[in-house]
């Protein structure tokens, strides 16, 4: 009987390849469960990163700009007339503030000041179209320009096309060579334009724009002739770079 029980226990003891495979399977299962639990815990802890905040045009800014101005002047009196076209570069500063609504509409207010060396001289013609002597031209020089404008745009992420309009100021030196004195003055009129801006970064904004200004005309008294009416219109293209707060 003892020999029989011994033989039975030997037969019941797991041996060989089958037992080895079972041990490997059990160990693999344990390792998988442990690793999966750790991975699940790690995933639970690592929450997805929040989205980067969208760019907004709301805020103030200051910038510098340069460009080119083309004037369209007019001198007229007693049938005589002249049409100088002062042209040249402009450069200056601008500052303003924007507010962006939830529907991406952007409104703003802006003021700028620029200095210019634009000038021109032109012959004067009488009522019959005959020019005065070349020694007696009219001269018109644009010294400074400024404007206060409202802006309306539509934001397409970092791109902002806009229109702008308001009040323009232009300081001008002008004279009729050979006449008494000069007719230096500051014109005030309206300006209207359009442009586009692009936010190169959250703080640096590039712009390009076109603007037109109608500054009206003024009447100046002459000593020995009827009053002289002098007017001015300007067209400008400008580029600028601003820092947004």
At a glance:
The chain has helices spanning 2-12, 16-45, and strands at residues 59-77, 80-82, 87-100, 105-116, 119-122, 138-154, 159-176, 185-199, 204-220, 228-244. With 245 residues, it is an alpha+beta fold. Strands 1-3-4-6-7-8-9-10 form an 8-stranded antiparallel beta barrel.
Protein model, in words:
- The protein is of the alpha+beta class.
- Helices cover 17% and strands 56% of the residues.
- It is built from two helices and ten strands, in the order ααββββββββββ.
- The protein has helices at residues 2-12, 16-45, and strands at 59-77, 80-82, 87-100, 105-116, 119-122, 138-154, 159-176, 185-199, 204-220, 228-244.
- An eight-stranded antiparallel barrel has the order 1-3-4-6-7-8-9-10.
- Strand 7 (159-176) and strand 8 (185-199) form a beta hairpin.
- The longest helix is centred in the first third of the chain and has 30 residues, at 16-45.
- Mean pLDDT is 85; it is low at 1-12, 17-22 and 24-45.
Number of helices: 2
Shape: elongated
The overall strand count is 10
Largest sheet: 8 strands, antiparallel, barrel
End-to-end separation: 99 Å
Task: Note poorly predicted spans.
Answer: 1-12, 17-22, 24-45
Q: How much β-strand is present in the residues?
A: over 45%
Strand order of the largest sheet: 1-3-4-6-7-8-9-10
Q: From the alpha carbons, calculate the radius of gyration and give it in angstroms.
A: 40 Å
Structural class: alpha+beta
Order of helices and strands: HHEEEEEEEEEE
- Would you tell me the overall average pLDDT? 85
């Amino acid at each position: 009987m003892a020999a029989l029980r011994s033989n039975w226990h030997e037969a019941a003891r797991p041996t060989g390849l089958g037992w080895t495979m079972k041990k490997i399977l059990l160990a693999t299962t344990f390792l998988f469960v442990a690793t999966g639990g750790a991975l699940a815990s790690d995933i639970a802890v690592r929450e997805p990163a929040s989205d980067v905040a969208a760019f907004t045009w709301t805020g103030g800014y200051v910038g510098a700009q340069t460009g080119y101005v083309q004037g369209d002047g007019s001198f007229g009196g007693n049938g005589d007339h002249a049409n100088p076209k002062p042209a040249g570069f402009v450069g200056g500063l601008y500052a303003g503030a924007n507010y962006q609504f939830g529907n991406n509409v952007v409104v703003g207010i802006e003021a700028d000041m620029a200095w210019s060396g634009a000038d021109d001289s032109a012959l004067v013609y009488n009522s019959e179209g005959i020019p005065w002597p070349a020694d007696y031209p009219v001269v018109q020089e644009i010294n400074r320009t400024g404007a206060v404008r409202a802006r309306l745009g539509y934001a397409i992420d970092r791109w902002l096309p806009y229109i702008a309009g308001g009040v323009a100021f232009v300081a001008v030196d002008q004279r009729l060579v050979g006449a008494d004195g000069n007719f230096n003055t500051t014109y005030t009129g309206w300006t209207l334009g359009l442009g586009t801006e692009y936010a190169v970064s959250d703080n640096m904004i590039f712009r390009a724009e076109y603007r037109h200004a109608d500054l009206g005309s003024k009447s100046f008294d002459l000593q020995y002739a009827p009053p002289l009416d002098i007017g001015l219109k300007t067209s400008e293209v400008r580029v600028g770079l601003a820092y947004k707060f």
